[in-house]
Amino acid sequence: MSVLVTGGTGALGYHLLSMLTKTKGKLHSFSDEPPFPWQVWKHVEYYSGNLLNYKEILEVLQKTKPKEVYHLASQSSVGLSYTRPYETLSTNILGTQNLLEAIRQTVPKTKVLLVSSAEVYGRGTLGYLGDKFTEDTPPNPITPYATSKASMELLGNQYAHAYDMHIVTVRPFHFTGPNHSRRFALASMAYQLIQIKQNRGEPVLFTGNLDITRDVVDVRDLARAMVMVMNSSEPTETYNVCGGNSYTLRGMLELLFQFSGIYAETRVDPNLERSNDIPILIGSPQKIMDAFSWKPMIGVEDSLEDLYNEMQQRIRQETKKR
Fold this sequence. Notes:
42% of the residues lie in helices and 17% in strands. By secondary structure, it is of the alpha/beta class. The chain folds into two domains: 2-175 and 217-241, NAD(P)-binding Rossmann-like Domain (Rossmann fold, 3-Layer(aba) Sandwich); 177-214 and 245-280 and 299-320, Alpha-Beta Complex (UDP-galactose 4-epimerase, domain 1), CATH 3.90.25.10. Strands 3-2-1-4-5-6-11 form a seven-stranded parallel beta sheet, with helices on both faces. Helix 5 links the parallel strand 5 and strand 6 (166-172). The radius of gyration is 19 Å and the shape is globular.
């Protein structure tokens, strides 16, 4: 048996691969670029390629013949999807099409887990802003990124029903924790604070809208949930991965201030603002809790502290190489 993780060099892929030990057989990662040294696991074989190149992903599948495929690879930035909608839609829809077709051609009995996003709910059609989204809530995407993920889910359903493939989907809500890319808000703020503390930048923190509210889980809890879903879920099922709790971005920034020991002036960067930000996005984790007895084990405070400490280590490593 072997396992293939697309997007294995991202934060989620990094932690997922750490949980998938050799008891699963040979582990393989397929990403658009090679891993940084700090991302490398000795028990993983890494491949670089482009999901939009069908031949490349087909060759990897023919070589590895995985029994399980975790599909994490995507253009995953909501903000970037506004400025690069074509790249977002092509990577997330056509890239998934290439992967599923290559699986169908080579290892059609393979179990596939697709990583979607709670962004597909948009503002939803619920009665009021405090409602929690469930898996039965109709998707209502309002960004190119959300549209690409909702379309990816439809592709998964198409292949599952048309070709009897074992495909399941998770919809993570906001997640953070160690190894998260600086392209994302909380990791960016941690990075900026460290730079300010080390007198390497202007003593101002640039942010987007700090008053949005999100349901937040740690990246390691998300990875654990995905393994549970892959191991035991029936085909075509979809699961929210969330805690059912809400946190404002401003409140989480306050925690980062505490961990850094400094406070900085905050300024809104117009490039980080979105005219149609979803003000509140909270999910119901009831289905995944009932099915697998999963629940978040790492609190938001611990998650952010681990993010901040790991970011310090990452910056030190980057500085040594200059």
